[in-house]
Amino acid sequence: MSMLSLKYVVPGDDFTRAGEASSDVKHKLKQLGYDSKAIRRVAIAMYEGEINMVIHAGGGEAFVEISPEEVEIQLVDHGPGIPDVEKAMQAGYSTAPDNVRSLGFGAGMGLPNIKKYTDELKIDTEVGKGTTLTMKVFAGH
Amino acid sequence: MKVRDIIKILDAKVLLEGDLDAEVVTACGSDMMSDVLAFVKDQSVLLTGLMNPQVVRTAEMMDMRCIIFVRGKEVDPSVVQLADQKGITVLQTRYRMFTACGLLYSNGLRGGCEGA
């Protein structure tokens, strides 16, 4: 049973605002008294995903379902898609432009990090159409 | 040490006062937020020369207690503002990254992932 359903629009043109949705989810999970370790894993994974959407896909939407057992986050974008998911999952592999690196991101750790911090990760992507990331973090893991 | 000890050690300017009595044991220094998110584990202090709102976001997601901007760079007020209400203390020191890290290390702060 879902305790809370949340929806966010992640603006694609403003790097300074990336992370607002993750910050709000973190805040709400704290209010719900969620397990602090799970909160941190959710926050980091979703934040990485949000940054990815801003860097690569011109923004998108985030859907979050919170239940006592788990947090499910779906990040949907209509960007360029990921041509080679296997490569994108390798730590250090990056297609981010140089200007992103000067902002402190684009080290090729985004997707590997999301995988590390979540219990389940599903990537649906199609070149030219977009990418949907579905991730789950179980409480108490 | 406490956050307030860092202020003394680094002769730092307080840009935003969070919980100065928060106990901190470990720190990390990086300008690459990607790496902070990937490699940091339970460190509560972040030293960086990067000056954008994502520094605060990263510290927030990692539950950090203190951000130290090194090399005396001017920090945009909007960056500091973002840390408000989150209990994060924001400091600015004239010391460069290497020296700032060294001073904190020699006063007892550790990396938290010794051997790596």
Task: Summarize this structure as a short list of keywords or feature phrases.
heterodimer, A: 141 residues, alpha+beta, Heat Shock Protein 90, globular, B: 116 residues, Udp-n-acetylmuramoylalanyl-d-glutamate--2,6- Diaminopimelate Ligase, Chain: A, domain 1, 34% helix, 16% strand
Plain-language structure description:
The complex is a heterodimer of chains A (141) and B (116). Chain A is built from five helices and five strands, in the order E-H-H-E-E-H-H-H-E-E. Chain A is of the alpha+beta class and 141 residues long. Chain A has one domain (4-138): 2-Layer Sandwich (Heat Shock Protein 90), CATH 3.30.565. Chain A has a five-stranded antiparallel beta sheet, with helices on one face. In chain A, strand 2 (59-66) and strand 3 form a beta hairpin. The longest helix of chain A has 22 residues, at 36-57. Chain A is globular. The two termini of chain A are 19 Å apart. Chain B is an alpha/beta fold. Chain B has one domain (3-106): HprK N-terminal domain-like (Udp-n-acetylmuramoylalanyl-d-glutamate--2,6- Diaminopimelate Ligase, Chain: A, domain 1). Chain B contains five helices and five strands. Chain B has a five-stranded mixed beta sheet with strand order 1-5-4-3-2, with helices on both faces.
